[in-house]
Amino acid sequence: MAGEKKEGRGGLKVWLNGRMVGYREASVPILTHSLQYGSGIFEGIRAYGTKGGAAIFRLEDHMRRFLNTAKIHQMELGYGMEELKNAAIEAVKANGLESCYIRPFAFYDDDEIGLATGGKKVSVAIAAVPFGAYFGKGRNEGIRCKTSSWRRISSDLLPVEAKSSGNYINSIMANREAHSAGFDEAILLSHNGYIAEGPGENIFLAENGTLFTPARGSDILMGITRDTLIRLARDNGIAVVEEQLHREMLYSCDEAFFSGTAAELTPIVEVDGIKVGGGKVGDMTKRLAAAYSETVAGNNKTFAHWLTIVK
Fold it and tell me: Can you name the residues that pair with 91 across neighbouring β-strands?
């Protein structure tokens, strides 16, 4: 995976609790609660270069999910929608970036030992960093995936629709297992054996001209890029079905791809050693990838409202 470039990060500025500070200043004690226990919450947002300048993609939708995650975890952020949106814009602008990744993060800024969160200070940070293709060349050429032996967490264990730090230990284990076996990424199944998602991505399968994706009841994160591609597909006359999907469909489908803020649209050309669609990127995948690229670049008038221009 390529993703971000870390060189020169010390020169970046971060929005922290209402003010811009240097990246190195945005530090916390080693015993900070959210570092110890994974009690932080976060979002992943992209900005893209457009003819009008840097544009943040679906900013309000991402911040709404951030606020909903805080609500689920009973975390009082102290900031509302407009303040968070303006902070994200400020972070992009302060760093002089166009195409970049924006990471809102809220955490219990308290170094007292103990699980309880009641009364603990909450800090909110928003960073913007240069960011490329998460899967490198795989974004265009396709990647190889392994069905993980680790099952996707379910809502009777943890709130799967919340984007919280602790949830991602599940993803890290699956990702590490896939990499150790020589694959690019993992695919997790739900507790009842249906297809769920990737460690940090939603998944789509194409069969006989119809696009399929796991339904909300499959223990998935309701991805904003997932929603984007469903709406783009329907706008392009492609039927979309959201339902529980059996594992074997990974092997028999015509096409498959991941979606996510970091992954964007990344084709899957092999699962568990079985070629998907003959091991080549399919036509529907290419068509939707082109539609997505046009949309985030500001060239799709129908969905122009998804872009927030940084001025």
Answer: none
Tokens 């006989």 — which residue? 208
Phi, psi dihedral angles at 128 (to 5 degrees): -130, 125
Output the pTM of the full model: 0.95
**Catalytic residue (choose from 146, 163, 275, 286):** 163
Residue with the two structure tokens 């969905």: 303
Q: How many CB atoms lie within 10 A of CB 181?
A: 12
Helical packing angle, 224-235 and 59-72, nearest 10°: 140
**153: DSSP letter:** P
Taking the CA atoms of 45, 37, 39 and 180 in sequence, report the sign of the dihedral they define.
positive
Residue ranges of E strands in 91-164 = 100-108, 122-130, 143-147
Distance of CA 130 to the CA centre of its chain: 16
Residue 24 C-alpha from the chain's centroid: 25
Q: What is the largest CA-CA distance in the chain?
A: 57
Domains identified in the chain and CATH numbers: 9-130 (3.30.470.10), 138-296 (3.20.10.10)
pLDDT tens for each residue of the chain, 311 residues long:
556 555 567 799 999 999 999 999 999 999 999 999 999 999 999 999 999 999 999 999 999 999 999 999 999 999 999 999 999 999 999 999 999 999 999 999 999 999 999 999 999 999 999 999 999 998 999 999 999 999 999 999 999 999 999 999 999 999 999 999 999 999 999 999 999 999 999 999 999 999 999 999 999 999 999 999 999 999 999 999 999 999 999 999 999 999 999 999 999 999 999 999 999 999 999 999 999 999 999 999 999 999 999 98
Is residue 163 annotated as part of the catalytic site, yes or no?
Answer: yes
Strand, helix or coil for residue 102: strand
